Amino acid sequence: MKPRNLAILLAAGLALGAAGCGGSDSGSTPEATSSQGSAAPSGDAPVSFSIGCKPPKSNPKEAAQWDADVAAFQKLNPNITIDSKDAFPCIVPETFQAKLAGGEMEDAFYVYYTDVQKIIASGQAADITPYLDTVSTLKDIRPDVMSVFKSGDKVYGIPRTNYGTGLVYNRKLFTQAGLDPDAPPKTWTEVQAAAKKIAALGPGYVGYGEYSAGNTGGWHFTVSIYGRGGEMVSPDGKTAAFNSPEGKAVLENLKTMRWTDNSMGTKQLLRWEDLMRMMGSGKLGMMIGAPDVVQAVNNDFKGKFEDYGVTALPEAKASLSGGDGYMFNPKATPEQIKAGLKWLEYRFLTPGQGQFNYERSKTDGLPVGLPTTDLYGSAPEGVKINEQRTQFATVPVDHFKPYVEGAANIPFKLEPPKAQEIYAVLDTAMSAVLTRQDANIDQLLSDAEKKVNNILAKSS
Amino acid sequence: MTTMTVKGSRRRTTGAVRRGVRRNLTAYGFLCAALICFAFFSWYPMVREFLLSFQKTNFVGPPEWVGLDNFRTVIDDSAFAPAWINTAAFTGLALIVGYAVPFVAAIVLNELRHAKAYLRFVVYLPVMLPPAVAVLLFKWFYDPGPGLFNQILGFVHLPGLSWLDSTSTALISLVIVSTWMNLGTGTLIYLAALQSIPSELYEAAELDGAGLFKRIWHVTVPQTKLILLVMLLLQIVATMQVFIEPYLLTGGGPENATVTVAYLMYQYAFSFGNFGGGGALGLMLMIVLMVFSAIYLRVSRDDKN
């Protein structure tokens, strides 16, 4: 090709590409989606909506289950077309805002509990309160679970999974260290003693692991202080409340294990994947976590279900609730939201169906039996789900019995306002205690309190 | 008659312009392509970032103008001062360590008689590694337990260090990673500059009795003065934007010892969902970097003159 033609082609191509980029937003305006998705507000008018977090192609069995459910749902609702978007991981903070800005966000998008209140406060999710009368199972979902997606009287999302935080432990290491894996620690003193024995197994063994970087340290500080009955912020949410005996106890416990007992290993500044890797490698004895940790360790970090157990958080008076769910794009039309809610109920909220079709999961060779979802508590749906989970279990359910029994009596608590900002501040206190033997806990908590008060004052 | 002359003159001028455009069409085509690239991938984001720093936006509804609120928010942040101090310290340390090492490596490579090509490849190898891989490699090197560095220290009977886990060694540990990752590029640029020095100058210096260090000081340094200055400025601009090392290795810790301006910017935008705050920090950093960029342009222009 002649240089002149090449140059013209290059410039024209780039100009077209740039024009294409600039125009991508227009297809997602409420008017545009309205005309594409639903021509008329009638209940049976054709409507299509997009949804995120379809299981990725790398997970073919779960992806096939999703596709089968979509086909069955569309057969039942011929006017609804689902445009599934697969992704792994389902949400990436770096792309979330960019997708919203670029008009590429799905009509129903996936969220972790941690982000829900931030998204509501930013006006980045639709108020779905007017459409909830179509979701018949909603009345039986635990009120504390639904409150995750509420702001005032308005509802902004639907939960998919829910769990309280407990203590994940390596049963194999417990046995090796002469501990009884069927009698996991119930107090922090017992955790300390168990951690010492595991660390004594030899170099590289860590009795108890804890986060302290990338905001995860602050997150687990919150889990721990809730467990001890403390609070992160005052009831009106305007001042910090963690500079308390409970907050001090959290840091002192860690300081003792790190420097007196030497049971926490030498490497600190750990983040989520670090503890997962350590747990998967079989060298970590215990960590704060929920059954989803065992799932992640088994699926992605070369661990085996049978080697792990979960128990309730020691001495727990309350538990930070964790989980995920779906919210709706503010640009989605009412028809899309109604259709989306119908699908969410079909796939994620109905016993024996979708994610709760344990019989199918067992047949497909997927793990069944982890208590990863407690949406209904003791309501009839919850009882039915638990029965079927036990009936079709493929993982040793006894390993999670202490968690299920213990967690039943522990109330859930939500994350504090401005959670990520507060967690970032408390990372400092957590990292100080774990990396500096002379760390002054009173001073650390006092400094963090001032910083958090400043953050809360600005947001109120 | 006069009218006809004017018309004829205009026709000639238009024809000349047309011919000129036709003749330079290729150049205009390539220029347009470059302009479109810069406009969309550099200038437009810069303008957007500038506007964002004065706005509160959720990317759904129209943005709200908030004046200097975003700047006040980030300045009041307890991590703001440490971020700037750490960034300045990182830049300073990177200059001391990272600036001298490639220059010395280039001189050594230039003086070598054998295995030159092989060693050049070895020096450039880290640049070919994806930064995330290189950084994660150092995460293992720095492990206070079985990590490579402490194993080496143990081998020579020295006590192990906490490396990333100590407020006193965390930042310098990041500088070492950064220096190792960027060593190859700097070395190759210096090497090219060294090879452009006429060998007669070294021969003359040798005849005058100059030893190795005198030859470096009186011939090499003056002859590469300009490239040294340009590299200095480019390195300042690059190292002040340090992000990937604290992001992957320390998460800004311990105790904010490695939080940098770029890392704080990331926290604001992606962890806190406050793009206005992130934009404000970005604008502040951009202004500082513009000063160094202006000096760089001045130096480049002086070179041309």
UniProtKB/TrEMBL annotation, chain A:
UniProt xrefs under SUPFAM superfamilies: Periplasmic binding protein-like II
Protein name: Extracellular solute-binding protein
Pfam families noted in UniProt: SBP_bac_1
Keyword Nucleotide-binding annotated: no
Organism of provenance: Sphaerisporangium album
Annotated keywords: Signal
Gene3D superfamilies tied to this protein: Periplasmic binding protein-like II
InterPro entries: Bact_solute-bd_prot1 (IPR050490), SBP (IPR006059)
Keyword Transport part of the UniProt annotation: no
UniProtKB/TrEMBL annotation, chain B:
Membrane topology: Multi-pass membrane protein
GO cellular component, one term: plasma membrane
Pfam families, per database record: BPD_transp_1
Protein's UniProt keywords contain Membrane: yes
PROSITE patterns cross-referenced by the UniProt entry: ABC_TM1
Biological processes per GO annotation: transmembrane transport
Tree of life domain: Bacteria
Regions crossing the membrane: 25-44, 83-109, 121-142, 170-193, 226-244, 275-297
Residues annotated as domain ABC transmembrane type-1: 84-296
Subcellular location: Cell membrane
Alphabetic keyword roster: Cell membrane, Membrane, Transmembrane, Transmembrane helix, Transport
PANTHER family the record matches: ABC TRANSPORTER PERMEASE PROTEIN, DIACETYLCHITOBIOSE UPTAKE SYSTEM PERMEASE PROTEIN NGCF
Similarity comment: Belongs to the binding-protein-dependent transport system permease family.
Name by which UniProt lists this protein: Sugar ABC transporter permease
